[in-house]
Amino acid sequence: MQTILYAIPAFGLVALLYTAIKSAWVTKQDAGDEKMSTIARYIAEGAMAFLKAEYKVLTYFAIIASIFLFYLGYVGEKSSPIIVGAFLIGCIFSALAGFIGMRIATKANVRTAQAAKTSLSRALNVSFTGGAVMGMGVAGLAVLGLGSLFIAFYYWFVQRSGASASSEEMEIALEVLTGFSLGAESIALFARVGGGIYTKAADVGADLVGKVEAGIPEDDPRNPATIADNVGDNVGDVAGMGADLFGSYVATILATMVLGREITVTDNFGGLSPIILPMLIAGLGIIFSMIGTLFVRVSEGGNVQAALNMGNWSSVALTAIASYFVIDWLMPETLNLRGYEFTSMGIFWAVIIGLIVGTLISIITEYYTAMGKKPVMSIVQQSSTGAATNIISGLSVGMMSTALPIIVLAAGIVFSYSVAGLYGVAIAAAGMMATTAMQLAIDAFGPIADNAGGIAEMSELPKEVRERTDILDAVGNTTAATGKGFAIASAALTSLALFAAFVGISGISTIDLYKAPVLAGLFIGGMIPFVFSALAISAVGRAAMAMVQEVRRQFREIPGIMEGTGKPEYDKCVAISTKAAIREMMLPGAIALIVPLLVGFGLKGVFEEVSSAEILGGVLAGVTVAGVLMAIFQSNAGGAWDNAKKSFEKGVMINGVMEYKGSEPHKASVTGDTVGDPFKDTSGPSMNILIKLMSIVSLVIAPHIAVRETPPPAPETRPDLEGAIQRVEKAAPAATAQYPVPAKQVN
Amino acid sequence: MQTILYAIPAFGLVALLYTAIKSAWVTKQDAGDEKMSTIARYIAEGAMAFLKAEYKVLTYFAIIASIFLFYLGYVGEKSSPIIVGAFLIGCIFSALAGFIGMRIATKANVRTAQAAKTSLSRALNVSFTGGAVMGMGVAGLAVLGLGSLFIAFYYWFVQRSGASASSEEMEIALEVLTGFSLGAESIALFARVGGGIYTKAADVGADLVGKVEAGIPEDDPRNPATIADNVGDNVGDVAGMGADLFGSYVATILATMVLGREITVTDNFGGLSPIILPMLIAGLGIIFSMIGTLFVRVSEGGNVQAALNMGNWSSVALTAIASYFVIDWLMPETLNLRGYEFTSMGIFWAVIIGLIVGTLISIITEYYTAMGKKPVMSIVQQSSTGAATNIISGLSVGMMSTALPIIVLAAGIVFSYSVAGLYGVAIAAAGMMATTAMQLAIDAFGPIADNAGGIAEMSELPKEVRERTDILDAVGNTTAATGKGFAIASAALTSLALFAAFVGISGISTIDLYKAPVLAGLFIGGMIPFVFSALAISAVGRAAMAMVQEVRRQFREIPGIMEGTGKPEYDKCVAISTKAAIREMMLPGAIALIVPLLVGFGLKGVFEEVSSAEILGGVLAGVTVAGVLMAIFQSNAGGAWDNAKKSFEKGVMINGVMEYKGSEPHKASVTGDTVGDPFKDTSGPSMNILIKLMSIVSLVIAPHIAVRETPPPAPETRPDLEGAIQRVEKAAPAATAQYPVPAKQVN
């Protein structure tokens, strides 16, 4: 049994070894001529400046949160101050994951540009390897962290006292481990929101003055905001996405472990099998993601998308097959969670359901945002009557695009529940997240290629270089859309798993909307994603305005800037984005952290008939539903507007006339794209972290707001109760059938 | 007791008498010169053409629905085919309310224009009296219909068999009465959605070609779509709003009655007091609304808004005071609903809470949409960088504006529940709706004044006429915003009351989000308002495109049209809007009607541990939460964009420069306003009806999907159970305290 426990961090170490080797390989590649290196250095420095500023602020946050956690852990009955250690390691690992991703991305971008001088194949190789370094780094850190902390806490809390795998001691061990997830997700929130604000403030600001007012192309070195714009791609799309998936990955595994503890089994692993299964599946996913990367190869003129799909599908399929054998070997034949019986094969099917849900939602997302498909074409058509109708149709496409993903998600919930109860819902999420390393590799490849294109443009490299990076970039736009779909689906399932875990730990047996305070909580929860989105969007608006004024000032005051003889002050624009991002991420971040505390502690004991934990459950349900809807709506509307605009580059037929770039309909579509920018890159993706973080905070405080303040008498003292229940059942079978006394209270 | 029952329809008759007298008075007023009457006739004919076309389609709908209802009523145990009669009367009354409103509005508009030649005071008098006719007509029909049907069904189902007020017979009587509400709300849905599509297709179409392309002012008689635009004001704002509030009014009273039946009391009214209280409060509200209209008087140069407020506040205050005495006289001192004890004074406080919630939400709505306030000014400021930033800030304002209303609503739910249980939540809604007649008078006054201005413009009346109607119109814009806030708040509370009633009738004792299918239902429900909005918005987009093409064609093909010598073909534009509205209202309407049937009947018996009624409860909760949020978001964003645009008429200071109509920022704000049009007048207000209608459909099918298929044994056969429970309680007090066997199952 020990062996299997130690295998988990070993998987993580293997991934980190891969990261180190591949990272060295990327660094060894040719970084091009001096002009290229200079631009790349600007971008790398800007990115690192942002990270440094962000991490400085987050250090203060981590200290304050640690004090609070220490206090909670100290006073609570079923908790321990050791949670602070887990929390801090979670923070550091998450920050480290962001750092690794940012560092490799800012190295790979210029090397991809240089490689694109030779061939498409080499350019793909460099950019995708960059992505893979990030993906493996994130997954490796997560599995290493979770695995080794679990071993430590298992030894400290459980094994030392000889307690069982489903004991209260194990509950405390896992509760302490939740700190790791809390740390990871907190950093992720700030990274995602801050990064999202950064990238869009720079992008919108650069476009509004550069493209619209001054009439110079994108990525033109004369535009002072162009470096900030390229930094933003790394800050938002690489570090933000990485932190998001790191958080989901950890939270999903953890939630499944917490639910697994409630399952009492007799197996060959000391009853630990339901707890360690999610970590093992994650470990397998890492190995098969590595194997999958070998399939990502393309020849000159070949299909890049097909190569990426090949890599993705092979890793997914191999993981699915392997999980069958692992589950069959590890798990006992039948299990029972909170009175719901299921089989080990049910767990396998839940993994498959998770994979299907993730895939379907990715495909649907692609349909709603892809060029040439009906939704985007409808926006293109409506651009002919101006910006207003373009916007109206984009909003309509975004809202409509919620239908299918929600149906898939709802079906996924019901099916995974029916095959393996709440453990099934959690394991479905874990299955979906198993190949996170590969997903991230594909995701991170996009912005690297995008950056490479920017560097090629700014360094005035030959046309064929830009053409090659454009091929990669176009594929990157599609993978960005599907990646967002994947991130939303995973966040939704993760939140549900956390939700189920929260219900278990807080000791409530229902979250009953029939009770007025719970219903009120649902409303409050539902409102939060709207307010959070509003804050994120208006933050971008404000920051973009500041950027616009700075760029205008430089155009006005720096002599020769438009002729290319005067040098723009890139650093000023970088500083504006950095400052705005750091400042504006505070309030939304605080909301996500504080609302669960306010509800959980503030309403404790206020209502006689409803516990604050149950009301908090209502809030979480509201946040999750509205958050998932707003995430899909905003991300897809933004993606669709973006591609409606891009459709004009090759020309589109509207009312029998071919319209190209520069036409009136195209201008209308540029307005739509600008509206969509904060939707798809700031507020939309932030929803994922919002719902996860609020669930994790709730899970962390769950033992402190639990309703079982006077613990029920131990089973052996309550034979009378069971007898009485049997008598009740005999007397009135109909009534007790309707209101069963929950099984877990009895045993 | 009989007296008090008969008093209820008598209140309705008084209101209708008032309607008849005041309607005759309006008709007697001078309709102006021939040009004015001709234009007014065009508008009236267009409005009636729409109503005729709409009612024709709805006749088919009513027939199909009747067959289905007859079948349900026939096969069900706790139902009766008589529900078809109630349903049809509900349909007819709702249609009649729309007809009365439309007819008086299209008479009052031209007479207001004529009166404005003399004085502001006379113009207000005519337009407000027109509104009052509509308000009293709607309230009168509702109270007359509900009151007399209740008397009939009470006699038929209850009194004949000598059953008590809380008997199963009474349950059937009220279930049949629900048909009236279903009829009212179904017609309301189509009126609201169809009207909303009509008005915005005409408005957007008229603006895009007339104002933007041809550069002619609003309401210019050369614009072929101008009549359709003015018809739209009546179709959407008058008939649509009227049907919406008619539906809310009826549904609220009914839901409270259904909950009231579950309260067993000993009073001087045969135990009927909790059932008839909501009807009595509504009747009182009518009388005090009439008295309130007397306060709406203004002198030349006086404050119109203050006059309307005076009328509103006096009717609200008088109703509140009167309800104290009625409750004190009618209700027993203590009551009990589903185990929740409360006092008669608790009911009074619930009324007050309802009034406060409605008022606060109206005030908040006004803040977010009023000129000169911070939210609108932020949109104005962001217009300086173009349409994109204008749109972004409008979306942000709309999302942010959900926060306070939801907090108020949540507090309202919790407080009204704590003073009088679920009956309190319902009575709060009833209290809020009591002065519906006055609310509607104030609401309908706006579009009448708006139309009067249009007629003045088209008839080229002297400048001071337009100035006077503009004063009224400006106030009308504010009342429209607060009216929308009121409509949303009332719909939300109504839905909650219906939700509570549904829970009672369907026999479920929890709606537990902890069960996976219920959670999946919550997701599905939450998605529906997004899809519904998307359909409504895209319908406007399509219809507006058709309108644009028609107006362009007329400008191109009719000689002398721009010089005023060629006559535009107004009827063609009217026909386009009419056809589009009728066609496009079908699908969203069908969704609202069919989803509850699919979930309720389709999932019946599918899940062992969860009833379809409980899943449907989850769906309803999702619809209500997301629907209320989307209603507030869309209505307020639209209102704010509108007033941001209007701010430029008097000039605004942006970055130190005064900007006026015609400036670049103003053009950006016109784009925002166009985007906001379908938001605030089509999809936003449709949310209200969507959530109510889905709740009512669920309430109607509740007895057919009820979980108590094998009814629990009658109390007298179950002494054993009570004894056993007492023994259980003795054995393990902690466990049973946590899982009380619900009281209603025991008695």
Automatic annotation (TrEMBL), chains A, B:
<keyword id="KW-0630">Potassium</keyword>
<feature type="transmembrane region" description="Helical">
    <location>
        <begin position="6"/>
        <end position="26"/>
    </location>
</feature>
<keyword id="KW-0739">Sodium transport</keyword>
<keyword id="KW-0915">Sodium</keyword>
<feature type="transmembrane region" description="Helical">
    <location>
        <begin position="615"/>
        <end position="633"/>
    </location>
</feature>
<feature type="transmembrane region" description="Helical">
    <location>
        <begin position="520"/>
        <end position="544"/>
    </location>
</feature>
<dbReference type="GO" id="GO:0012505">
    <property type="term" value="C:endomembrane system"/>
</dbReference>
<keyword id="KW-0472">Membrane</keyword>
<feature type="transmembrane region" description="Helical">
    <location>
        <begin position="275"/>
        <end position="296"/>
    </location>
</feature>
<keyword id="KW-1003">Cell membrane</keyword>
<comment type="subunit">
    <text>Homodimer.</text>
</comment>
<feature type="transmembrane region" description="Helical">
    <location>
        <begin position="82"/>
        <end position="105"/>
    </location>
</feature>
<dbReference type="GO" id="GO:0004427">
    <property type="term" value="F:inorganic diphosphate phosphatase activity"/>
</dbReference>
<feature type="transmembrane region" description="Helical">
    <location>
        <begin position="308"/>
        <end position="327"/>
    </location>
</feature>
<keyword id="KW-1278">Translocase</keyword>
<dbReference type="GO" id="GO:0006814">
    <property type="term" value="P:sodium ion transport"/>
</dbReference>
<dbReference type="InterPro" id="IPR004131">
    <property type="entry name" value="PPase-energised_H-pump"/>
</dbReference>
<feature type="transmembrane region" description="Helical">
    <location>
        <begin position="421"/>
        <end position="442"/>
    </location>
</feature>
<feature type="transmembrane region" description="Helical">
    <location>
        <begin position="486"/>
        <end position="508"/>
    </location>
</feature>
<feature type="transmembrane region" description="Helical">
    <location>
        <begin position="347"/>
        <end position="370"/>
    </location>
</feature>
<dbReference type="GO" id="GO:0000287">
    <property type="term" value="F:magnesium ion binding"/>
</dbReference>
<dbReference type="Pfam" id="PF03030">
    <property type="entry name" value="H_PPase"/>
</dbReference>
<protein>
    <recommendedName>
        <fullName>Putative K(+)-stimulated pyrophosphate-energized sodium pump</fullName>
        <ecNumber>7.2.3.1</ecNumber>
    </recommendedName>
</protein>
<keyword id="KW-0378">Hydrolase</keyword>
<feature type="transmembrane region" description="Helical">
    <location>
        <begin position="391"/>
        <end position="415"/>
    </location>
</feature>
<keyword id="KW-0460">Magnesium</keyword>
<feature type="site" description="Determinant of potassium dependence">
    <location>
        <position position="480"/>
    </location>
</feature>
<dbReference type="GO" id="GO:0009678">
    <property type="term" value="F:diphosphate hydrolysis-driven proton transmembrane transporter activity"/>
</dbReference>
<comment type="function">
    <text>Sodium pump that utilizes the energy of pyrophosphate hydrolysis as the driving force for Na(+) movement across the membrane.</text>
</comment>
<keyword id="KW-0406">Ion transport</keyword>
<keyword id="KW-0813">Transport</keyword>
<comment type="similarity">
    <text>Belongs to the H(+)-translocating pyrophosphatase (TC 3.A.10) family. K(+)-stimulated subfamily.</text>
</comment>
<keyword id="KW-1133">Transmembrane helix</keyword>
<dbReference type="GO" id="GO:0030955">
    <property type="term" value="F:potassium ion binding"/>
</dbReference>
<dbReference type="GO" id="GO:0005886">
    <property type="term" value="C:plasma membrane"/>
</dbReference>
<keyword id="KW-0812">Transmembrane</keyword>
<feature type="transmembrane region" description="Helical">
    <location>
        <begin position="585"/>
        <end position="603"/>
    </location>
</feature>
<feature type="transmembrane region" description="Helical">
    <location>
        <begin position="57"/>
        <end position="76"/>
    </location>
</feature>
<feature type="transmembrane region" description="Helical">
    <location>
        <begin position="126"/>
        <end position="157"/>
    </location>
</feature>
